[in-house]
Amino acid sequence: MLLLQNVMGLVGKSLSPEVVLREILHLMSELLGLNRGRVVLKDPEGGGCRIRHAYGLTRQEVERGRYGPSEGITGHVLAHGQLVIVQDIDRDDGFLARAVAREHLPPGPVSFIALPVRIGDQTVGVLACHRIRTRNRAIANDVSLLRILATLIGQLLQLHAILEARTRELEERNRILVHALENETARYGIIGTSAPLLRAISELERVSDATASVLLLGESGTGKELFARALHLASPRRDKPFVKVNCAAIPDTLFESELFGYERGAFTGAHIARHGLFEQASSGTIFLDEIGELPLSMQGKLLRALQEGTITRLGGKHEIRVDIRLVAATNRALEDDVSEGRFRQDLFYRLNVIPIRLPSLAERRGDIRALALHFLNRTNQANQRNVSLSSDAYLRLENHAWPGNIRELSNFIERIVLLAEKPLLNAVDLDRFMPAPDHAGKRAPTLRPPAGAPEAQFARPYLTNDSHTEEELKQALLHAGNKSRAAQMLGLTPRQFNYRWQKVVKSS
């Protein structure tokens, strides 16, 4: 009991194996007379094991305590995970006496006890010691106590391994942060220094020199166009064209002519030949935003262009070679679209060569203050205002959910700057502009993007075909005046709004 009390007191003070295990072996010797205790662990540099912690052994004896797989009593216990008791080391041929020479031990019968140390179902080490057989205490009592200590040692080693893994993770985060800061990620126009953001930037920079396709994944409003442009700027193609395409904004009938161009006379009104977006992006980068909106009829043609590096203009007969780096983006689960037949599996595999997930704003709350300040300065300058926020106002922003991510935060800052009645706003002032909680379970309306903002930066989330009622569509159209603006109000693309509107008309 005294031994166990002392051991548990040690664990409460430190989890370092060097401190705790050596003291356990010390107490074994002082209180129980179990001498020359050692903890033998697998050698990561070889297939055997060696003494890692000991008490009562010289440095030379510890150094000699190395064993091959299944070699000697210690190797046998490590290999088979079973307790071994040598009643008399002088009468056992398997005892090597490698670490401690026999002449350095007391005269008379000496026992050797070796127990497996386990982490889960794996034997990772051995707890062993010498025992003078003239002790009055029964050897079974010593073995019972040693079993408890071996179990405790296994738990300590497991905790230490967990702490080391956590430490390595933190060091990796710091390394990513330092790398990002040293390389001035702000040159890409990306605001923030949170670990998830910097990890995505680090992945982007590591693949920037490659030519393989990159698929940017993440929620709507996480800045996919900004990342696509950053990938282009970090690549050897930085001085070449960067062409962005919003697949949700192109009517189905115009996809082929927009992407691949057309020859003169290809259709009525084609008075001159026109280069498509692929030709315009040749030698540079083409960014296909909302790739999930690409109609099935175009997916096969896009796949062929990517595989062969050639395109054919609409109405043309000759192939034109193009050299492009493709970056695609989606906020949809393309795997689900593939399984439901809405997206070609072979095209998905072609696009998903290098997937990079962009973190949501909820995953990078530490960046909200810097983002808010950036949007505040930009909006103030654009509108000749001088609105600022108090400390509790920034805290209020950091505690908000922001389901619309960076886009929603940007729109919110623009709103408060334009509607502010005083130059300094606090948390209470912001609450007047915050969207009310959606107690009814209905989808909250999507904020419209700032005037003049690029359409491609405002990718809409994937919605089911019955996401809006007939009354919602009619009210939005009545309020907005046209279908394009009505679609924006409801968080839909023009194609999505038209599809739902056609269903309403047919059912009327």
Description:
The protein has four domains: about 1-165, Beta-Lactamase, CATH 3.30.450.40; about 190-355, Rossmann fold, CATH 3.40.50.300; about 360-460, Helicase, Ruva Protein, domain 3, CATH 1.10.8; about 465-508. Helix content is about 45%, strand content about 15%. The chain contains 19 helices and 17 strands. Strand 12 and strand 13 form a beta hairpin. Helix 1 (about 1-15) packs antiparallel against helix 2, helix 2 packs antiparallel against helix 5 (about 140-180) and helix 5 (about 140-180) packs across helix 6. The longest helix has about 45 residues, at about 140-180. It is elongated and about 110 Å long.
Provide the spatial order of strands within the biggest beta sheet: 3-2-1-6-5-4
Shape: elongated
User: What is the CATH C level class of the largest domain, in words?
Assistant: Alpha Beta
> Could you tell me the radius of gyration in angstroms?
34 Å
CATH superfamily of the largest domain: P-loop containing nucleotide triphosphate hydrolases
Low-pLDDT windows of residues: 438-462
CATH architecture of the largest domain: 3-Layer(aba) Sandwich
Mean pLDDT figure: 84
Distance between the termini: 85 Å
CATH fold description of the largest domain: Rossmann fold
Q: Work out the number of β strands.
A: 17
Backbone structural class: alpha/beta
Our estimate of the beta-strand percent is 15-25%
Number of helices: 19
Main beta-sheet strand count, sense and barrel state? 6 strands, antiparallel
Approximate helicity band: 40-55%
Number of separate domains: 4
